[in-house]
Amino acid sequence: IGVDTNVYIMKYFNEANYVSSIRYFFASNFNGDAGFLLLACISRYFSEDPQFFLFCIAVFIYSFTFLAAAKFRQSEKNFSWFIFLFIWLFTLFHESLNAMRQYCAMSILMMSFVLLWNNKWLKALSLIIPAYFFHSSSIVFLLIFVFYMLSFLSKKKRLVLSCVFLLVCSILTMKFFDVLPFLENSGFVSETYAENYGAYSKYESMNLFGPSFLVMYSIICYAIWKVYKAGYFSDQTLMITIGIHSFYFVFRLAAFSVVYLNRLSTYFRYCDILLLSIFLTKKIVPQKIRILLYLCMVYAWYKGFISFPGAATYPYKSSILGITEF
User: Fold this and answer.
1) Is 110's pLDDT higher than 90?
2) Which residues contact 1 (CB under 8 A, 6 or more apart)?
């Protein structure tokens, strides 16, 4: 439970009290976050207790997440529920209790990822719309569709264009403060967002390329190579896999500007747990590599939330739940 509990819950829950018709709903000041406001309206219809809104948010996130995982398992028989739950609980569950709007969007995009994995690109693309109305930053997931389209080109063109595209994305990410005014003027981000994450942001920058991440990322790349050499991937699933891990890496660069911008990489990390649930069950990936991946995840969890308490980044206070001290 973090600072977003206080920031978002009461704000949207109180706004839902004034929504008495569809007209008022679209006239609301929160219509840019229409999905989250709609969820607040539904929860308020059943209960006046804001804690019930927290419950509805959790149900929404977990329903889409596990429905996407179940659908993914239909096409990927090597998928392991145990491994999926292990990774999800260790790396993402706790954040879902804080970054609630974004995790609602991420859970929808996980379903979009599964549909794209099964070549249902139009249905996958349509899900970005509801995700956008939970959190506008979810539009970055469109980058995966670029890699999906590149998969239909020849190998040479695919390699050249993907490298050029990633290079451009890396440059734009590192020059984020110069790009942000353009995004604001174009309407892609709000004035509040530009103020919070601009050059004069109240948030600090941070280097998120520590030894545990670099080791784990290198191991994952090796696992992808082994699975590719075994002929497991089609052209489409290979490019989707490369896209997920490439953009996960690229958007961590944004933390050198403002640490909270690392959340952009979380859209890709959320889908990556489905892929890891395959890699860690594939016998073609050496057992030593699988053990190293487990150890890296546990170590990252320990460093992030035990030796360095999450409260240092996300104040663990909630007036709703009566938690007034760390």
Assistant:
1) yes
2) 97, 98, 316, 317, 318, 321, 323
Degrees, nearest 5: CA angle 148-108-83: 85
Identity (one letter) of the amino acid at 52? F
Angle at 127 between CA 123 and CA 131, to 5 degrees: 175
Given a cut of 70, whether residue 278 has pLDDT beyond it is yes
- In the numeric block, which tokens belong to residue 307? 């030796």
What pLDDT score does 308 carry?
A: 59
> What is the chain's Cα-based Rg?
20
Give the contacts of 263 (CB within 8 A, at least 6 positions apart).
99, 102, 137
Q: Concatenate the DSSP letters of all residues of 25-46 into one string.
A: HHHSTTGGGHHHHHHHHHHHHH
What is the enclosing helix (H) or strand (E) of 229?
Answer: helix 211-229
Per-residue pLDDT at 325: 53
Element (H, E) at 112: helix 100-117
Measured in residues, the chain has a length of 326
Segment 291-304 mean pLDDT: 79
Tell whether the model's pLDDT for residue 62 goes beyond 90.
yes
